[in-house]
């Protein structure tokens, strides 16, 4: 991971989107929710976000990491870094390849497993993302970044607000003062404001 694994950018702007989606999702004919997941350095994607600059692949970094990977086939960390570089460039299918290879070498790396789940979500595969998050939680049931991610995918990808609420409540219980705990609390507050009494 770049800093520590995935940390979702759930701030005021994102929660405005969450509230809008929760209200709008009840309207017939509404298109799917905007993507709400982001890595710590990547902006949230989706049609309702302000226009963002196109992400650019750092070709020099890719070349340097590929040299390491080619010379050291057992180097899991170089594969993780390649996954991160591709993720930052919003090339999620390429990121998936490198995260999967890293996990083959280091299957207990919960951070990489969670990054992989986020990448699956970004290619519009929320079921596979949730399955990957389950794997992450089998490694570490208290991994707050995974639980936060799980809540976002449940809310946006599966429209399961009760399950999303449960995931976010667990984050708050485990780490109330962490960035993840604060983000989860904002998500819960936003959902409560939009649907008083409608979630757990």
Description:
The protein is mainly α. It has one domain: Tetratricopeptide repeat domain (Serine Threonine Protein Phosphatase 5, Tetratricopeptide repeat, Alpha Horseshoe), CATH 1.25.40. Helix content is 62%, strand content 0%. It is built from 9 helices and no strands. It has helices spanning 12-24, 59-71, 76-88, 92-105, 110-122, 126-139, 144-157, 161-174, 179-194. α1 runs parallel beside α9, α2 packs antiparallel against α3 (76-88) and α4 (92-105) runs antiparallel to α5. It is elongated. It starts with 11 loop residues before the first helix and ends in a 6-residue tail after the last helix. Mean pLDDT is 80; it is low at 1-14, 17-36 and 38-50.
Structural category is mainly alpha
Describe the global form: elongated
Order of helices and strands: HHHHHHHHH
Query: How many domains?
Result: 1
- Residue-averaged pLDDT: 80
How does the SSE layout of this entry go?
Blueprint (H helix, E strand, L loop, with lengths): L11 H13 L34 H13 L4 H13 L3 H14 L4 H13 L3 H14 L4 H14 L3 H14 L4 H16 L6
Helix pairs in contact: 1-9, 2-3, 3-4, 4-5, 5-6, 5-7, 6-7, 7-8, 8-9
Outline of this structure?
The protein is an all-alpha fold and 200 residues long. It has nine helices and no strands.
Task: Write a concise keyword list for the protein shown above.
disordered N terminus, 9 helices, Serine Threonine Protein Phosphatase 5, Tetratricopeptide repeat, 200 residues, single chain, mainly alpha
């Amino acid at each position: 991971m770049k800093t520590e694994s995935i940390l979702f950018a759930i701030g005021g702007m994102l929660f405005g989107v969450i509230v809008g989606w929760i209200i709008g999702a009840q309207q017939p004919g509404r298109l799917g929710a905007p993507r709400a997941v982001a890595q710590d350095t990547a902006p949230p994607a989706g049609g309702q976000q302000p226009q963002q600059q196109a992400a650019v692949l750092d070709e020099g970094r890719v070349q340097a990491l590929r040299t390491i990977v080619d010379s050291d086939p057992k180097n899991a960390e170089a594969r993780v870094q390649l996954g991160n570089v591709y993720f930052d460039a919003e090339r999620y299918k390429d990121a998936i390849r490198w995260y999967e290879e890293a996990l083959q070498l280091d299957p207990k790396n919960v951070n990489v497993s969670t990054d992989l789940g986020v990448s699956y979500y970004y290619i519009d595969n929320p079921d596979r993302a949730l399955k990957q998050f389950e794997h992450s939680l089998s490694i570490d049931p208290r991994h707050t970044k995974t639980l936060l991610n799980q809540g976002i995918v449940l809310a946006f990808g599966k429209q399961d607000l009760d399950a999303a609420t449960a995931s976010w409540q667990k984050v708050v219980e485990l780490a109330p003062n962490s960035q993840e705990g604060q983000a989860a609390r904002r998500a819960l507050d936003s959902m409560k404001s939009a649907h008083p009494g409608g979630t757990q």
